[in-house]
Amino acid sequence: MNTKYVLVTGGAGYIGSHMTLALLDAGAKPIVVDNLSTGIRSAVPPSVPFFHGNCGDEALLDDIMKNYDVNAIVHFAANIIVADSSVDPLGYYRNNTGNARALIDAAVRHRIPHFIFSSSAAVYGEPNTAIISEDHPTNPINPYGRSKLMVEWILADVAKAYPINYAALRYFNVAGADPIGRTGQSSVKATHLIKIAVQAALRKRPGMDIFGDDYPTSDGTCVRDYVHVGDLVQAHLAALAYLRREKENLICNVGYANGFSVQEVIEVVKNVSGVDFEVRVQNRRAGDPSRLVASNRRATEMLRWSPRYDDLKTIVRHALAWEQRLLVDQL
Ligand SMILES: NC(=O)c1ccc[n+]([C@@H]2O[C@H](COP(=O)([O-])OP(=O)(O)OC[C@H]3O[C@@H](n4cnc5c(N)ncnc54)[C@H](O)[C@@H]3O)[C@@H](O)[C@H]2O)c1
Questions:
Q1: What is the phi/psi pair of residue 118, to 5°?
Q2: pLDDT < 50: residue spans in the chain
Q3: From the CB of residue 195, how many other CB atoms can be counted at a distance below 10 Å?
Q4: Which domains does the chain have, with CATH numbers?
Q5: Cα–Cα dist 221/263, whole Å
Q6: Fewest Cβ atoms closer than 10 Å to its Cβ: which of 101, 115, 318, 329?
Q7: 77 lines ligand 1 (CB under 6 A)
Q8: DSSP readout, 226-251?
């Protein structure tokens, strides 16, 4: 592992905090920039240099890069709630696209050779195949997806013009928590299905809603590809090694090529927790594709990614353990 620094934006958030730990575990040296809009300071170990600020703040970035020999940026910082992006598109374009542009600009100014970007399955929109490969057309159907796709375009143009290479990792549904309980999904506003279902199992909320049970799927509820956050961050380490080794760019899905319906996920949560809870069927939400399942051939072949937690029960067990821990911390 290269001993120069890796700048992690959004490192106090759900995925970023797992990445920070994975870098430390791998013997690398992370630095975190986070504005703590949804992140939590205590999610970043005290040994890691932490800058409370905006990842698009030119002066802050210049300062960091003058003081630390940064070799790569892993950019997680963003607003992530799809429904909110339709209510506040300008806010999403400012934070997700505008700040990413400023960060990429700083990377170029300071000759940082590698950049990894948190993209999303949302760039595909409503897919026209059961399994989505990276060659599937991109046609995002909400401002969140468009805010991410624009950053992919910026990176593609920048990598042609300057000495920098990049990986855009298109995550499917990220879930679970650190297997040894060091971090997890702590954000109060989180809308992730597994988080909400384990909260219902722990009686932190009075049951839960399913949005639509008339989709063209086996039980009528939406199908998604749930990827364990521990495997996801390993894909980032593999992408970093790829960028350093190959000098090429990479656009790559991260998912298990395995879909579960909302109903199936809820059943697994009830089984694993041993708790029954109320589930109410509501109308469909606008902009929810019926099925999003990744092809992961590129990740397994080009990144040599070999997931360890490709098992829905394991994902739910880890999410539940983290949620129980949050409950204890609140006491
Ligand atoms: N969670 C998923 O299922 C999923 C799926 C696809 C893509 N993603 C992407 O992964 C990334 C991380 O998502 P997450 O689930 O960890 O969300 P999160 O909200 O837990 O983490 C985002 C972090 O970025 C910080 N942040 C936001 N704007 C900032 C700014 N301008 N400057 C500095 N810090 C800022 C927040 O405080 C937070 O710590 C996001 O880019 C998201 O779009 C997530």
A1: -80, 95
A2: none
A3: 23
A4: 5-174+226-254 (3.40.50.720), 193-224+257-330 (3.90.25.10)
A5: 6
A6: 329
A7: yes
A8: EEEHHHHHHHHHHHHHHHHHH---EE
What token pair was written down for 105? 């600009």
Block residue for tokens 């639509």: 212
What per-residue confidence (pLDDT) applies to 187? 84
Which tokens belong to 36? 């703590």
Residue 186 in contact with ligand 1 by CB distance below 6 A? no
Can you tell me whether residue 70 is helix, strand or coil?
strand
Beta carbon of 51 within 6 Å of any ligand 1 atom: no
For position 72, what pLDDT does the model report?
98
Q: Which residue is catalytic, options 14, 124, 144, 309?
A: 144
Task: Judge contact between 25 and 240, C-beta under 8 A.
Answer: no
> Is 144 one of the annotated active-site residues of the chain?
yes
pLDDT at 286: 77
Q: Whose CA is nearest to atom 34 of ligand 1?
A: 34
